[in-house]
Structure formats: structure tokens, C-alpha cells
Amino acid sequence: MFRDVLFRVFSLGFLIFAMSLLSSPAKAVSLSFQSSDIDLDGCHITVNGSWDVELKLYSLMGEAIESTRFRYSLNPGLTYVSLPALDGSHSYFKTSLKEIPSNARNLLQLYDVKIRFRLKTGLLEKPFVYLISDVGNPGKPDGKTWSFNVPGSPDWGRFLTGEPGGSYLSASDAKKLFASGLELAEATIVSCKLTEYELQNWYKSNTKWPEVRAMHKAYNYLSEAIRRSTGLNPPIYRSLHVNSTVHTIRDSVIEDHDKWLRMFQNKVKKLENLPDRFITDDNPKPYQAALAEVPKIIAKIKDYVGNWHSSDVDPSSLPQGYPPQVPGMYQLEEKDDGIWVIDSSGTRFMKLTGYMELLGGTHIIETFYMGCSKKPGVQTIKVINPQNGDLLKQFDFPCNRVGKRAHRFEALNVEPVYQNEDKEAGELKAIKLQVINDSGKQLGASPKRCSGMKAVNFDVRAHNYRVELPHLTLKDLGETTIRLQRSLGDAFCLSTG
Questions:
Q1: Which of 137, 291, 425, 496 could crosslink 318 through cysteines, CB 3.0-4.6 Å?
Q2: Angle at Cα 427 formed by Cα 423 and Cα 430, nearest 5°?
């Protein structure tokens, strides 16, 4: 069940964070600004809430890069949802999110959210341009958690428009306007979709309303059969709304359903155990047929509910984004108290240890080594966000050849891989790893005491990997044989003459 929903935004409060623009065309130019809407209007009388969005734009090696992250919350009193009737009709009923228990409200989720940014340029002949951005997977509506999309690199000719919903500006015009400097003037959510998948499955697992309806039907069926078989007139409960489309869920929904279910279960049990003195030989068949039918009525609704599945979009199937890493954004600064990661304005972010290295201005690589001479160990590489020190990914490689060999080669070599192999201006594309965990084959004779020989060549096996950035996925490139030297023996002799 897909529903397109349209947000209309009337008032926006903007908080603009201006970053220094790097003047060199060989390096990245980056902007960052954040907007907050405190009065989000309704959406087809279905969704109402508030939101924040952050847009990052930068140019790298002549290409446009953009990324958006988003967070939002929903107003329970002005947001309406559809829940399954679970009565075999395949229908749904509307209810306010406020009527859902608070612990289940965040199960509702938006996706395919598209935002139109109005950007002020530095040129009088074209004061404003527009950009449409998809925020990716927005996540839960808790109003706190920022979710990330996957940073994209659109063609310059499909990047900016001159009017809302207008045609794209040419590549040359887009580059010119981008270079003039951009400021955020307005942000509007123009479309999105809503998935109730998790909320509907929660309702299915927690509601007793289908069983209440089944028990109500079973009770009335038994009552009518008893009237026909005995002449007695048990009351018929016609006041219960069997059609769930007129039933309103309240905060106490579970307790209300349990109460109704227990009541009808007790009444059905009494009618199923009618004393023998009320059953005559005149017409026992209607009552006997009803006794056989009651278990079928109950089993049928339980089977239907158990096999029901939401047809809405499963949030776990949506692509998961990641925070954008702006190429060339960070650099190193050596001070008396150590080496720090800083940005172009000189702001400090984190201090490096002896095991850390900043690669390409985007990622910190941290390596550790655990020896394998006595027992198996691991060689580890950690990929860290320079801005906050968060661990983005960790890769562990075994060094597992156990033995008492005198000369072992165990190392983890890290080499950055740049676009076009341009380490000054190029974008960091990947990290090449070379894992050596075997002593290999010794070439030539071992040095003898006082021989003056200082090294012996070895052919060793090295396993090669490539870590793709920024996705941080590991590719196995296979084994190679390389030649290394290791100093051996005693190269210092005493003179005896």
C-alpha cells in the first residue's frame, strides 16, 4: 500500500553554517547549511509534524557532489494511519496516531522524501537557483536521529534549475553559479511516501479484536441454535459492531479487547456446557451442529490473522545511507602537544596517536599488530571519521601460522589509492591492504657467525585486499609472492690479531 504525501511549508527558520571556501580549483569546495521548520502543515490530512534538514554541496575535480540528511517527528493528534480490519474483507480503517499506544507510534515511517532547496547565488543576473534532493532513508520519526542518504554525483547539466520544477541549467551555467557562492534561502518538502508496515504488523500481533468478533459470532450462533433446539431465548448481542471499520482504537486498546474477549469466552463456554435437562429429543440437531461449528469459527479467524502480512514497504528493505565525507576537508597540524586533525578554518577535531594516519583528507586509518609466534593473532585496521573519532569500520586479518621459526614476516601494509593517482588534488578512492602472515621460503644460505653477511632474501606470500571508500566494503584481490629481506646472524666480529 503506497501513498504519496505532499508537505506544504509556510514558515521556515534557518540556521546557516558558513564554511570557508577553498580557493584552489584543484581542491574541494564545500558548503554546509541547516534548516529547521517548526510548523509543518498537514499532508492530505494524513501526516503532520516537524523536521530538520542539512545539505552538503561540494565540487571535486570538476564534479558536483551533494548529500542531504534529515530528521523529523510527527504530531500524533494530526496524523492519521490505516490499520487492517483483519476480518477477511482485506479492508483497512483510519485512526489517529494519538489513539495508538505511545510505545508504537514511532513504527510509522516516511521514505522517498524529496526536498527542494532555493539557493541564493552571488550573481545579480540570476539571484536564485533550485536543487531537488532525495534524503534517502529518513528512519524513525523520533525527532532526534539524523539519517543519511547516499551522497551522489549528478552531472552539472542535471544539477540546478532556474525555476521550481523548471528545466535544468546548462553545465556551464551551473558551474558558474556554483562558483559564485551559494546561500540557503528556503527549503520545502515537496513529496514523500509513508509506510505503515511495522505499525500494521504491530497491530496484528497485539490486537484481540478479530478474536472478539469470532467469539461474538460463535456466541450468537449458539444462542440461535439453543432457541431452535430448546425453546430457550439466550440474549443476542447485536450491539457489538462486528464491522471493525467503525471501531476506534484508544490508548487502552489492548485492555479493552482483552476485556471483551474474556467476556465472550465465558459466555460461549456456558452455552457450550448447557445442562442435559434443557436438551430434549425433539430437535437436538441445531444445538449439536452449533457445538461442532464453534471451533471452526474460531480457528478460521486465527488462521486468517496468522497468514496476514502487510503489503506496505518494509523499512528494512530501504537503502541505508552514510554521512558524507567531504574530500580534502581535513589536514594535519603539528603542535607541541601532538598532531591534530584540523579543517580549512583551523578548527581542531581529534589528536592522532602513533598508530594513526590521515589519508586523502577524508579518513583516519588506525593499525594495530598482534604477534603470532606463540599463538594465532590478528592484524587489525580501523577506519575512523576524522571529525568526531567515530569508528566507521574495522577489518581483522589473521596471522595464524604457529611455530618456532626464527625469522617471520608478519605485517599489515596500508597504501591509499587516489583517483588518477593524484595525491595532491585527487579524491581518495580506496585503501590497498597487503597482509603478510607467513615466513615463506628462504633464498640463499643463512649467514654464518662473523661472515659479514647482514641480510637474507625471502619469498613470502602476501594477501591483497582493497577497501572501497566511502562504502567501506572489502574486496579480496588474491595472493602474490613478494621478496623481502631480513637481517640474520651476527655481523660483528672481534679482531684477534
A1: 137
A2: 90
